[in-house]
Amino acid sequence: MAKESYLDIFLRLVKIQAPSGFEEPMMDAYSEAIRPFVDEVHGTPRGNVIAIRKGTNPEAPKVALAAHLDQIGFIIFNIDPTGFVRFRKLGGPTTRAIMGQQIQILTEKGLVQGVVGQKPGHITTPAEAHTIPPIEDMYIDVGAASREEAAAMGVRVGLPITYSAPSLRLANGLIASPSVDDRAGVAAVVKVAEALSKSRPRATVYYIGTVEEEIGLRGAETALHDLDVDMAVAVDTFPAGFQPDVNMRDLLYEVGKGPGLHVGEIQERVRIQSRQVHTWLRTTAEKTGIPHQVGVMSGGTDAMTMMQTRGGIPSATIGIPRRYSHSPIEVFDPRDAENLISILVSAIGDLDPGFTTVRGARKI
Hints:
By secondary structure, the chain is α+β, with helices and mostly antiparallel strands.
């Protein structure tokens, strides 16, 4: 079988529907994709998938790469007597991107297609036309004429929903797609594992697929507890700017300029990642001349919870910039992902027993 390119893997994985809390299809797909390149793959009761490639030197630091298997989506909250579906968010879909979209409900009978309805334009008032309704006022039309007819189609309360939109190839090699976050990162982890399988590194590597990142980094909270890991790297995507409605003041990163090596993350406050892990990645990128960007990202990644595991596992994030975050048209450049892969392969290949993640000028 011909070797899959990074983009081949991404385009295959992005077709799999696995919103937060319903990751089983991606758990299976990730296990199958990475199995040829590792010594062991197993799942955990929490849902995380752990793949292990044993290193040649037990004294070399052991590193975990984590990419989340879930995607943003929705969940059925109620069904009107007339068959219209009421829903709520799973994770953080952008509210103004929801109206008028095509969606799919993941039922036990298969996918049920629908659309997010909206008031007819001919009777929409000017005030309504310039207002984004709350999700509680939105509804999905699956074509059913009653609650009973919707039930006969397999539609019931508690089922997950995802956007139903194709991946598009834009000019200059860019890709627009739902669920770039984090299928782009998962595909990158698979390619790192493939590259490092050709010559076994000194360091043992754990390739982890985490669950429920989009609803609170929940899988990553437990992912490292039972693993003999010295440090961890979250492989994710992150918001980029340099578009007409985004000021560089708010988003520094740019699509096509290389992966982001984050010093920290900002939500309500700035949180600093492991400077030792960050410096390891940044030094590798600088030494090899691989394009990259350094800054503080907007949002949060699995690194933030992994670094709180046990006594504290030093963790940082390397990510792929994307435009239009948490919408069905996220845009990224696969070359940024290829450069991310190159940085990780080189950095892990250089790990030896002399590497330390201890903070401070000297070992304590």
